[in-house]
Design a protein that fits this description.
This protein has 55 residues and is of the alpha+beta class. It contains one helix and two strands. Strands 1-2 form a two-stranded antiparallel ribbon. The longest helix is centred in the N-terminal third of the chain and has 27 residues. It is elongated and about 50 Å long.
Length: 55
């Protein structure tokens, strides 16, 4: 594998993991943010943000 290909794959992996860590890590610190399950109920589909007084 060429050095350029390795560099691009590494940058892509870093960007994807950084984005996931930023979104889901930020949600974990917010008491109004909750993870949303997919229709089957087995995997995460995203996050929901609802204020405590709305629940």
């Amino acid at each position: 594998m060429h050095l350029t290909t390795r560099l691009l794959l590494g940058l892509t992996a870093f960007a994807v993991l950084g984005y996931i860590g930023f979104v889901y890590g930020g949600c974990a610190l917010d008491p109004d943010c909750h993870f949303r399950l997919c229709a089957g109920g087995r995997s995460l589909c995203g996050i929901d943000h609802a204020y405590v007084r709305d629940r």
